[in-house]
């Protein structure tokens, strides 16, 4: 079987269309911005379109001409603030209309799957993230 790599715009555009139809979609995220919760190029995530976006959800959004898979750290009406679990600083801002889908399951290689939690403990460790992530990246 041939492996095809598609640009994010095309692939995630198709994923968004599936989610709008009410179907679930499974993707392999790229990058390290969601470490240690999601390991890029290793873990698979299942996305589903949800009616409500809550603080702590991990969402796929299309904003500013790009797709981002990050955690919601604040909800103010229709406005959302996002931040990757692996980021030390920096946030993104969007609206609930920008949300394509919510991560409902994270599957590790080997088949072990779990539902993502709200990340409260990890978010509380923000002042220590630099050190924890430094150690984590050396171990994986």
Notes on the protein architecture:
This protein has helices at 8-20, 120-124, 129-139; strands at 25-27, 44-48, 58-63, 66-76, 79-83, 92-95, 99-107, 113-114. It is an alpha+beta fold. The protein has one domain (8-139): Umud Fragment, subunit A, CATH 2.10.109. Strand 3 and strand 4 (66-76) form a beta hairpin. It is globular. The mean pLDDT is 94.
Helices, strands, pairings?
Layout: H1 8-20, E1 25-27, E2 44-48, E3 58-63, E4 66-76, E5 79-83, E6 92-95, E7 99-107, E8 113-114, H2 120-124, H3 129-139
Antiparallel strand pairs: 1-2, 2-7, 3-4, 3-7, 4-5, 5-6, 7-8
In short:
With 140 residues, the protein is α+β, with helices and mostly antiparallel strands.
Key phrases:
about 140 residues, alpha+beta, Umud Fragment, subunit A, eight-stranded antiparallel beta sheet, 3 helices, about 20% helix
């Amino acid at each position: 079987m041939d492996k095809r790599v598609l640009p994010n715009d095309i692939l995630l555009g198709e994923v968004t269309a599936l989610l709008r139809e009410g179907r679930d979609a499974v993707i392999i995220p790229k990058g390290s911005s969601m470490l240690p919760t999601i390991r890029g190029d290793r873990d698979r995530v299942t996305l589903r379109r949800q009616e409500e976006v809550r603080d702590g959800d991990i969402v796929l959004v299309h904003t500013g001409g790009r797709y981002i898979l990050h955690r919601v750290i604040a909800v103010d009406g229709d406005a959302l603030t996002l931040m990757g679990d692996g980021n030390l600083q920096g946030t993104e801002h969007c609206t609930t209309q920008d949300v394509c889908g919510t991560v409902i399951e994270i599957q590790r290689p080997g088949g072990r799957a779990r539902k993502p939690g709200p990340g409260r403990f990890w978010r509380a460790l923000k002042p220590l993230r630099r050190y924890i992530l430094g150690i984590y990246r050396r171990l994986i």
